[in-house]
Design brief:
disordered C terminus; alpha+beta; 24% helix; Rossmann fold; five-stranded antiparallel β-sheet
Length: 376
């Protein structure tokens, strides 16, 4: 039963400040995923929680314990690494039991803990085998089992699925989520894969250059991104962006792109957007937010460069004016590269961002977000 409170922590390596001052509260039993591009600082944050990296400034609390200066072995956390870190000469049982043996736990207690972990993780048939005879997914389950027998207050996962193939990653995501439901333990999980983050987390924390851009549940991140970075990072394929400005004419509001394209904005958005009329903005629209009605009043002309049939739908990849654009179209569409197609957009689901600040102009994160925008 442990919540985590990260209070204005910073981390510098020499003159390089990788975490400028970060605040984050993680609730007891919450599954939080730290996500962001490579080098954004997410693994450094995880290692500071574990005690494997010293904190340059600020404090880390587990419940009512200040663990900032507490060594890793006394924090009662278990960490699962990307590379499994299994002992090749030991069996599955030996690997799971190793930490308990080092701590002098009685043999009967070790045997019971290993049996329980093997049962939870489906490792009973492999208990006497060595790691080299196991698949990647089985090895990862052994690494989780080794963490599990410590009965930790907090589980820490550092990109544990990145070495697995696509099918195994999906299977292991399901297993880790099921494990969380069963154990009801706080989990902090690091990944660079936004699909992994969205499918597993209670709450996703999007990090960029050591700064929290937004932290919220997956649906809110997708539907109400706080800024251009979150909008671009969350979603696959990523959101399309077109630069331009808002113009009002006879009571109607138009988005005029820098290439001269004009789109009529929904009438129910006029009042919300009026403060940005005449200012440089960025229109964001996701590839899947197209409609079947070509008379919707928001058709754009797209030059197709590439076509990706995906079974239930087809992705058209090309350009709209000078902007790159991806559209998710019906699977049966007949298009060739270099064709010009009319793409009808659902502008009721579009996003507008202030070009200078990058912040969303409308429908930003809800008040339920525990962290919105920059660290505070």
């Amino acid at each position: 039963m442990t919540n985590i409170s990260i209070r204005n922590i910073s981390k510098s390596f020499g003159d390089v400040n990788v975490i400028p001052g970060l605040n984050l509260d993680i609730e007891d039993k919450e599954f939080v995923v730290l996500v962001g591009p490579s080098g954004c600082g997410k693994t450094t944050i995880l290692r500071m929680i574990a005690g494997l990296e010293e904190v340059t400034g600020g404090e880390i609390w587990f419940g009512d314990r200040n663990v900032t200066e507490v060594r890793p072995g006394l924090r009662n956390t278990s960490m699962v690494f990307q590379n499994y870190a299994l002992y090749p000469h030991m069996t599955v049982a030996g690997n799971i039991a190793y930490g308990m043996k080092v701590r002098g736990v009685p043999k009967a207690e070790i045997a019971a803990a290993v049996r329980k972990a093997a049962e939870i993780l489906g490792l009973e048939p492999y208990i006497d085998r060595r790691p080299k005879t196991l698949s990647g997914g089985q090895r990862q389950r052994v690494a989780i089992g080794r963490a599990l027998v410590r009965n930790p207050d907090i589980f820490l996962f550092d990109e544990p699925l990145s070495n697995l193939d696509a099918k195994l990653r999906i299977e292991m995501r399901t297993e880790i989520k099921a494990l969380h439901r069963r154990l009801e333990t706080t989990i902090v999980y690091v990944t660079h894969d936004q699909v992994e983050a969205m499918t597993m987390a209670d709450r996703v924390v999007v990090i960029n250059n050591g700064v929290i851009e937004q932290a919220s549940d997956p649906v809110t991140l997708y539907q109400k991104p706080a800024n251009l970075f979150v909008a671009a990072f969350i979603g696959a394929p990523s959101m399309n962006f077109i630069e331009g400005e808002l113009v009002r004419d006879n009571g109607d509001l138009f988005f005029k792109s820098t290439d001269g394209m004009s789109l009529t904005m929904p009438k129910d958005k006029v009042a919300d957007y009026k403060g940005s009329i005449g200012k440089p903005v960025v229109l964001g629209i996701r590839p899947e937010h197209v409609v079947s009605d070509r008379d919707c009043g928001a058709n754009i002309e797209m030059i197709v460069r590439s076509i990706e049939p995906l079974g239930p739908h087809t992705l058209l990849i090309g350009t709209v004016g000078s902007s790159n654009f991806t559209a998710q179209m019906p699977a049966e569409i007949k298009v060739e590269p270099d064709d010009t197609v009319s793409v009808p957009l659902d502008l009721s689901k579009a996003h507008l961002f202030d070009k200078q600040t990058g912040r969303t102009i409308l429908d930003g994160p809800s008040s339920d977000d525990k962290i919105i925008g920059k660290n505070h």
